[in-house]
Amino acid sequence: MDYCVNLSEQYGGAVRLNGPYGDTVYVSDPRALHHIVVKDQHIFEELEDFIVSNKLVFGEGLISTIGEQHRRQRKLISPVFSTSNMRRVLSTVHDIADRLASTITAKLPTDGSHSEIDVLPWLSRCALDSICNGVLGYSSNSLSVAEDDAYAEAVRSVGFLIGKFCLLRPFVLIVTRYCSPYWARKVLDLVTAPWIPTKFMRDIREMRRIIETMDCVSRKVFAEKKATMEADDMLCRDGDSILSMMDIMLKANTMSFNVTRLTDAELLGQMNVMIFAGVDTTTSAIARCVYLLAQHPCIQARLRSEISDAMKSSRYQEDGDIPSAELPYDVLMGLPFLDGIVKETLRLYPSLPLMVRTATKATTLPLHFPVRSRSGEPTSTITIPKGTQVIISILAANRHQGMWGADANEWRPERWLSSPLAVPPDMDTPVGREDVTSTPRSTPVLGVKDGVHFPSVYSNMTTFLAGSRSCIGFKFAEMQMKQVLATLVLRLHFSLPTQRNAQGHVKEIQWKLKGFHIPVVKTPAGDGVTPQVPLNVRLVRNDDFA
């Protein structure tokens, strides 16, 4: 992670690198990023092997399509994640977050002392249940059972295996390009044959099993919901009833015109993509928040007090009840310090630190901050030959000291409390372009300098990108993070591990950047490989408030 940030700090917002696929340009300059993801996004497309691989794993979802098909899908799905729909599913997320807090509480000593708990698998189960129930309308109940069912286990494993197989994408592209579906399956049968004993081949076989499991359950859920739709049950429901995102999407699709309506294959693809995109990324973000709160007890206490104060005026909480952060949507989303903690964590530690595009034709990129050319002279424009791979450094952009200040690499949630309320217009924003700028008017202006800011749909940071390939579910992710954090902090206190092992070593958590941010325990107290976030957890006491 430090390398990714230092590269931009040392050489500027556009760095030309030499790699196995020729020149690659590493970009974190705000004006250049605006052209890549918004103004000239039709020139900078996803890599073909990325699209093909995603289609094989998830089907014809948003991350597997380009061009007109992608625009048609996004036009239908974008309204599904509206604020009004977030209000509908908040109670579902709250119930799951409350179940998470109760599950962890049951593992704690009743005398108020702490116990060391690896919170990562429980946060993962919570994220899975929230996505499955809130998005799919499928009850995974992974928090309520001792072991995951086959589908839950598959969803929690697919992201890790995809990361391991990134280098195989060019070979997958070759097979799909030059082989018919029949022969492509024959090749797959050959490489996944059980008589090949290597670990790599076992991983490929496991990946195939996971894909088949996800596909089987998705088809079953989809068939059930489609049958309900055809019986007109859902169309007759009260508009205020709680629906999953998939219910809302199916209803919108049924009411759309034939030319814009999505096929069954496309709807199945959206189901798979939403689950994959929401579980690992949200788990990582919430785990990072909890870890940071454990590192900063004063900030944890201040957050707990803010939530408690909000609950005192809530009609849902009565004296003697077990604390439950059941706040109305507008109250939850408007808590300023909770909002600052979530924003600051997503800024410093974006779940997807890097994205890659390829230039479909020769072009130039303007820069806001000049860089040094090969001749040694400063330049504000760089040439991009056709076929050049462009790395979008979300991580470096979110830590750009020229835009965020000298303390850009520090985690300071309070920075979001003192920023003025105004949002400048986007640079060269095309009128009517979908999702070019949807930053709320009340969002604090950070990451802005001389009227220039990063292309964004969320608080001027590039965490969720911008343009037609921005994260479509960021509102759901933000709501889920806030609800889970509010629920946990109100009932539980977190601190870093203190217990020494037989060799006298205390567990120290390290976050490795491998596609996602992966938390491990550093050696010698841990193996440095197994994902985990062990923390001391106890029940909240009166002196745990600010």
Automatic annotation (TrEMBL):
What UniProt keywords apply to this chain's record, in alphabetical order?
Heme, Iron, Membrane, Metal-binding, Monooxygenase, Oxidoreductase, Transmembrane, Transmembrane helix
Instruction: Give the family this protein belongs to, as stated in its UniProt record.
Output: Belongs to the cytochrome P450 family.
At the top level, the lineage of the source is Eukaryota
Annotated Gene Ontology cellular components are: membrane
Q: Which PANTHER family match?
A: CYTOCHROME P450, CYTOCHROME P450 12A4, MITOCHONDRIAL-RELATED
* Cofactor names: heme
**Molecular function terms from GO:** heme binding; iron ion binding; monooxygenase activity; oxidoreductase activity, acting on paired donors, with incorporation or reduction of molecular oxygen
- Residues of the region (Disordered) are 422-444
Query: Any idea what this protein is called?
Result: Cytochrome P450
Where does the UniProt entry say this protein principally localizes?
membrane
Pathway assigned in UniProt = Secondary metabolite biosynthesis; terpenoid biosynthesis
* Annotated localization: Membrane
Which residues are listed for heme binding in this entry? 471
- What InterPro entries would the database entry show? Cyt_P450, Cyt_P450_E_grp-I, Cyt_P450_sf, Cytochrome_P450_monoxygenase
